[in-house]
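hey m, so remember when u said the tokens were messed up on ur end? i reran from scratch. heres the input so u can diff it against urs
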Amino acid sequence: MSKQINVALVGNPNTGKTSVFNNLTGLNQKVGNYPGITVDKKEGSIKLSRNLKAHILDLPGTYSLNATSLDENVVIELLMNKKDKDYPDVVVVVSDIENLKRNLLLFTQIKDLGLPTILAINMADRMERKGIELDVEGLEKRLNTKISLISARKGTGFDGLKQQIANYQNLSTKPCLQASEIDTEYFGALRKAYPNQDLYKLWLVITQDVNFGTTKRNEIQTQNGFTPKSTSDLKRLQQKETIKRYQFINETLKATLTKDLALAKGLRATLDRILIHKVWGYVIFVAILFLIFQTIYEWSAYPMDLIDESFLKLSEFVTSTLPPGMFTDLISEGIIPGIGGIVIFVPQIAFLFLFISILEETGYMSRVVFLMDRIMRKFGMSGKSVVPLISGTACAIPAVMAARNIESWKERLVTILVVPFTTCSARLPVYLIIIALVIPDERWLGLFNYQGITLMLLYLLGFATAVLSGWLASKVLKIKFKSYFVVEMPDYKMPILKNIAFTVFEKTKSFVVGAGKIILAISIILWVLASYGPTDDFDNAEEIVTNNIETENLTQEEIDTKIASYKLKNSYIGHAGRAIEPVVTPLGYDWKIGIAIISSFAAREVFVGTLATIYSVGSEDEQTIKKRMAAETNPVLGGPLFTFASGISLLLFYAFAMQCMSTLAIVKIETGTWKWPLIQLFGMSGFAYVVAFLAFQILK
């Protein structure tokens, strides 16, 4: 039987740790959550030899073991808890050749825990171009470890790294810094009081209370003459530890690393002067967004049409192949249109994630964070708030979780409250179908598509609303706070295609699977509610319709359509829809849109799937969902239901409304109370209703 070992991948942010993880594990990986918390847990497996496998855990990025956030705390908890099933047999610390000095702080701390530790120096392919020379053998001797020079971009050095992991038992566990060197008197007393404890691990346990402040942990008690120090004294000792470590690191690198500073500069400095310029930086950022949304529309048009037609043909195939009956109707009128209503948007969502991934891989996203800090400060938030706001374009749930990195509780709370205004990918299907219906597919100046411009304006509107709401919330919330902003500027680099492919695939799959499960369940429920009715009007629909309309000048298809429409109106869902119709009519909607809005509270993207199911029930024509929606008439005003006025009203409603119960749940978890999610639900939805009402009444 083969043996399996646990390998922990640890490193600073922007060292290419995820790229190393992808190179090691390939497709043998999965993403979950750590027990009890919502921090992502990425794990994979590799075969090191015929009798040895490795379970690899990609831990959250951290700068040191002095944790200040929940993500960083995950690293410390795992490295210190031998009872954890994922406790590592060996740790691989991923570093960046150009930032080795900073990366080694974390390495020396982990090595002092007594764990077998390998130093993997990434981006080795840049050494010659940057004028860097490294004495690997000398560095190994000084650090008492094994070093692998690797390049995640070129895929080199990984065979050697795997070999070192396989031979982990031969690694030295000698510490880089003896804990007693920090303060002889204090650590001498600590050793005397707790003779059976590892001194450095005990020190980390003590100082975690200092870093988190309000975290409830068991305090170190007075014992055997040992008296716990005050918070300020512990902070002073932490600073002393950091200084001691950097003294060791400086001496080590002085003897083993040389760098030609003239070669190290150049392109990065030139690009930074342009991309984070106080004027041109913003112009370039808006131009990039403009280009992205134009491209999303242009590139995705053909695959979207293909998917739309494919689901239509699939529905027809099921109807013609399977025997007539309830089961066939459920599949052809409920499940297939419902799922098709979300799959059709996979191309545009994939392109959106593609561009976001490219911006992150190249190092540009960090510049955006730095650039936006100048604005965010004026609105009660920090530059760190930009990370949740930008990641909110994918999904509000991880965006809310990303606010954990904000040290100030007030800034963190403000960010959590306003993140749902950012346009997430779940809104994208709603935006795309409505824009396609009410915005002409024409070009401004012969170049720029009006539909692409509208989509970009909706994204900017969401971001602007979030920022303004943040300013208002910061004025209303009377919470004392202090904050500072630190952001790392990674080097510019060409994106790694494999990483981008992994990101696009995982994010798109997560979107489709997550939304698909909800849509499948809701599609079945909606089909049942739309296929049956509570009164005789539903059961006798054919007789009632044929007796009350002139059928001489109508084709059989037109008669069938009127019968299907009458049955739908008198079904269970029809009665429910007409009950809420007085509420949505002032916004320019009919009862079908009202039902779609209510059902989309489960997830915004359900809106399109709901309409696809409702419009497909009882329909035997060969029209796609888009054509059926375009043909709908307004029951009150007459004319097309989806006009410019009603379309803009609907777009604004979804831009502002809190239509996501999952986001409400995660806000409750992050804030520890239902107070804030309920404020979001009623505040945002009420605001959305008023804005949508005004938009329709003004534009109609």
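this time it looks ok to me. The CA atoms of residues 52 and 578 lie 65 Å apart. if urs says something different then somethings off w ur setup not the seq
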